[in-house]
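Build the 3D complex.
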Amino acid sequence: DAGVIQSPRHEVTEMGQEVTLRCKPISGHDYLFWYRQTMMRGLELLIYFNNNVPIDDSGMPEDRFSAKMPNASFSTLKIQPSEPRDSAVYFCASSLGAEQYFGPGTRLTVT
Amino acid sequence: GQQLNQSPQSMFIQEGEDVSMNCTSSSIFNTWLWYKQEPGEGPVLLIALYKAGELTSNGRLTAQFGITRKDSFLNISASIPSDVGIYFCAGQPFSGNNNDMRFGAGTRLTVKP
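Done.
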């Protein structure tokens, strides 16, 4: 199995620009999670989906953040407009039960 | 509430030494997971624990689900340089849904050859 796939691995953008992060979960997994990791706050859950439906988005910091899962094999996390404080590593994870499997992450830098 | 306290925050050890780290909570947890994260990569699942008292090994790694259901520990025996990384505990609170996962702040392990 290829594992969870994320793209891009690195993104550098200017403040105010739109950023789209992409995730392909492990085939057959019915849960998909988006996390953000920073030195100050550690791993934070942003949103998760079950069977493509958003279940809990209480961790999404602001309206500038949005996530979609149009089908079982693809999800996006969009930030519009981006701000320097959004700089972090964003992880996607998927699961079938309790065990979550993480992708390699997207390192986002907003200048 | 239901936060995980992971300790120690960091460890500097000599190759060959054994390592022990733990996670505690004030609340009961259903599941404990241990992950390792290397620089530039995502966390990788090492061990999953589902029952109080359960002791599980994965090579040189051993983890236990505490009897009180409020703690877990991870031991690494005979450490080697490639054990370097950040180790995270994660758990599902008893009162949460199946996907309410809490993460500890991590233990940063450095192994000197």
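Residues 53 and 76 of chain B are 18 Å apart (CA to CA).
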